[in-house]
Amino acid sequence: MRKFEKSKKLDYVCYDIRGPVMDEANRMIAQGVEILKLNIGNPAPFGFRAPEELLMKMNSNLVHTEGYSDSRGLLSAREAIVKYCRKKGIEEVGTDDVYTGNGVSELITLSMQGLLDSGDEILVPSPDYPLWTASVTLAGGTAVHYICDEAADWYPDINDIKSKITERTKGIVVINPNNPTGTLYSKELLEEIVKLCRENGLIIFADEIYDRLVLDGLVHTSIASLAPDLLTITFNGLSKSHLIAGYRCGWMSLCGDKSSARGYVEGINLLSSMRLCSNVPAQSVIETALEMEEETKKLLVPGGRIYEQREYIYEALNQIPGISATKPKAAFYVFPKIDIKRFGIYDDERFVLDFLRDKKILLTHGGGFHWEKPDHFRVVYLPEMEQLKFACSRLNDFLTYYRQE
């Protein structure tokens, strides 16, 4: 009988947030085992609800959003996104520069497919959000990982970036606020990255999906606002900030000087047209959503759920012998370090698998974010406080006896 294998294009593509460990969790769930999932930033299962005004707006728009929109998206949505860009200090963007998507995920893949040929390189942070590396690879390019330094609050190592720029480098991915570390980059750091891009003619791919989930009164700076003379593609959306991940509502904005990228823009337009358009009912709430940030802000201040859970998980993890964590400043992830010598750990995927099987709690190993050493894992701190306390208690107990050697 003829056999059908997966495409060879997928040989080096991985997305371990939903990979083998998740497969094992699903197998256990199918057997009736209850699993606490701390692996995916999906607010809805943990009791977060979208603002009622947003739901009412979508409901009232349904009768008007039954057909396709322009391939870029509804004009009202794109106008609202341009207005939001201007609010962030990004002037060089118009409605024809905005593309809505079925989440940012679709647009990351589209942006890479439209640009890369075999041998082209894109600088991607380590750790990264793994879809970036996967999309570069799937498009035929090579993801070159630059190091983010935990000792420097997870900031990118500028010298490491410099050392990895070659004549084949077409762009750099900057994830700010960062997933998986939760760090927020300073304006000064972003200016250093812009300077490198200016000197080397690089496109900046700015993943800013968490820019409205910043804690401690800090301010997010859009890198595009610092680089009006460079092509910067800024990615954003409503999945996280407005708690509607399932609606798949994202966008990308082509900001800055686009004069040297006419061919690339043609490619983006072609790919955008091929998928007809993104989810139109979701597009219809963008304008309303971007005018109502106060609902999100309530979660981020003392007494707010995300703030209080961030405070707890940071303190609790650092009290576990052999675990240390840098305090996240945005989003809802923490990327703790584990003392691998203490526990004899040489395989981080095995570590999270063993923890899953023993304690019925699902984490993501650091290697899933293209972190080379087996000494980190990511925790999503969206579950309610009692669940987080339960998880930390289980982890503490597990590490009293766990050894890989």
Automatic annotation (TrEMBL):
EC number: 2.6.1.2
Gene Ontology molecular functions: transaminase activity
Gene3D superfamilies: Aspartate Aminotransferase, domain 1, Type I PLP-dependent aspartate aminotransferase-like (Major domain)
Needed cofactors: pyridoxal 5'-phosphate
InterPro entries per UniProt: Ala_Aminotransferase, Aminotransferase_I/II_large, PyrdxlP-dep_Trfase, PyrdxlP-dep_Trfase_major, PyrdxlP-dep_Trfase_small
UniProt domain Aminotransferase class I/classII large: residue ranges: 36-395
UniProt superkingdom: Bacteria
UniProt keyword terms in alphabetical order: Aminotransferase, Pyridoxal phosphate, Transferase
Pfam families linked: Aminotran_1_2
Family, as annotated: Belongs to the class-I pyridoxal-phosphate-dependent aminotransferase family.
Name by which UniProt lists this protein: alanine transaminase
Species this chain originates from: Lacrimispora defluvii
